[in-house]
Amino acid sequence: MNNDQLHRYITQQMRMSHVYQPVMLRELLRSGGEVSVEQIAKALLSHDRSQVEYYEIRTKNMVGKVLTNNGVVVPVKDGNRIIGFRLNDFVDVDAEDRDRLIAECDEKIADYIELRGSNIWQHRSNAKGYVPGSIRYEVLKRAKYRCELCGASAEEVALHVDHIVPRNRGGQDDLSNFQALCITCNTNKRDLDDADFRGVAETYGDRETGCIFCGIPADRVIAENELCYAIRDGFPVTPLHTLVIPKRHVADYFDLFQPELNAFRRMLDDLRSSIQDEDQTVTGFNVGVNAGQSAGQTIFHCHVHLIPRRHEDVPNPRGGVRGVIPEKQSY
Questions:
Q1: Sequence-distant contacts of 214-217: CB under 8 A, at least 24 apart
Q2: Which residues contact 235 (CB under 8 A, 6 or more apart)?
Q3: Which of 273, 260, 274, 239 is nearest to 304 (CA)?
Q4: Helix/strand number for the chain, H first, E second
Q5: Distance from first CA to last CA of the chain, Å, rounded?
Q6: 3-state helix, strand, coil in the chain (%, to 5)
Q7: pLDDT band at 127, cuts 50/70/90?
Q8: What is the pLDDT of residue 117?
Q9: Mean pLDDT value across residues 214-218
């Protein structure tokens, strides 16, 4: 195939369902027309965001924690989010010492691989097995390109198409036995059970006509993530009193799904930090939920109150949330 023919194929004839073709052709062109399967696979891997995210999770939750606990590294943060690591109290070394330390790391890697062999990668066993492109497409289309557990969009995170009933538990390669999960949910699920999350993601879109929290104007929203949003309370108990509200219409806090609870926790942490940055007089918080009419709930769309407190904002704060029954607050 000459240059003109290849140009015509790339620009006019190529029909793509993924990035595979141009990545492979690019490697062939860079290598003078011939390249190994391994080199093509490595090039494809460099574009696979799911693989990067998989090891980002392990970097933060496993190896990063071990090295941090041993005082070797310290995390680099953006707010509450870990975005990197740096060597603890690192003093730059000369090239010879650096090369020696790198060689010592290489020796540790080689010794461990020789000792354990391919077993060191068994933690990726849930990703083994080829899923045909046609099935992957149908599963993602059915899931509306969202994780069927946490609701995360494919625009924000890589999605895995994997078995509901794992192969090692007798699961078949049938369309009905596949679901779409984001890298985090799929990694946490592994192949331990046959939990079927199809249909869960659809409920995150539930809204109810006439519910004030289902129709909050966008200009009132001060923060949001996939599953919840925050507004300032319309009748604040204290300045910067904030509500965290699930996007899904659900009345009771105890009916929230675990991903929504996770989203609430992240949102509350972020809001706590932003409120303290905005108002240095804030020295504490009350976090509260009214679950049910007898507990004082008047809007039956779940919401969590984050109430900033300041020193001496009331004469005697002792007892805090016990004040929902006034005579029981002080004890």
A1: 214/249, 214/301, 216/245
A2: none
A3: 260
A4: 10, 9
A5: 87
A6: 45, 15, 40
A7: very low
A8: 75
A9: 94
